[in-house]
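G., the chain you wanted modeled:
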Amino acid sequence: MIGFLRRLRHDINYHSARRSADRWSRASDAWLFVSLPVAVIIVLVMSVVIRLDETLNLAAGVVVRNSQGVIDATITGPSQSVPLVGTFVASVEVKQRREDTGWPVTLWQRVHPPEVLISTATGFEAMDPDSADPRARAVRAALNRSMPAVASELVSPVKDEWRFGAVIGTIAVIWLVLIPIGVVGILLARGVAALGAGVMESVRRTRRARGLCPRCGYRTRGLEFKEACPECGELLT
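Predicted structure as tokens:
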């Protein structure tokens, strides 16, 4: 990246020698370099401000008591029907919380371990993965049978991941967008300044023709031998 910026600066200096150097051309050259840290700042702000917090439904199931009186569980995908074989004991839901930052691509992601919720008389409660409760053992066994990947993540820590490829790509895209925006803005400012200067010059010529001070409009007829306007000090010669 540093080598690229050096080559870019060399090319700009080379081509700038062929054009008039004024404040507008210098502003355009400066913007090419300033826009890069601006793009980095925008991406950092995006990674803090833009957040998507969602909870995924990984699985659903039931806990039953079979004909031998043993607690058993059946776990399936969230969109599949759960067969009820035995006496109903509790409903089971497996959810996972995920936090994403950045737009339109994910720059940083935090993934929480799956959480098993078991229905009770008052609602759903989180199940302790290490609990000796027969219902917990049955749910763990069912997950090991049907969803071993989810079962292995029940006791995993929270995972934080910076997607550096997406970060660098987003910085590059924003930088490429900022460069023409800044150049167009400088050209518009230059046009407005030129228009304003033209209007002021027209006003000055009109005032001179009417015998007025070109700066403040003070009447200068009869002051031909005065070098400056007595009101504002503008040179009259």
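The chain has a mean pLDDT of 85.

Shout if anything looks off.
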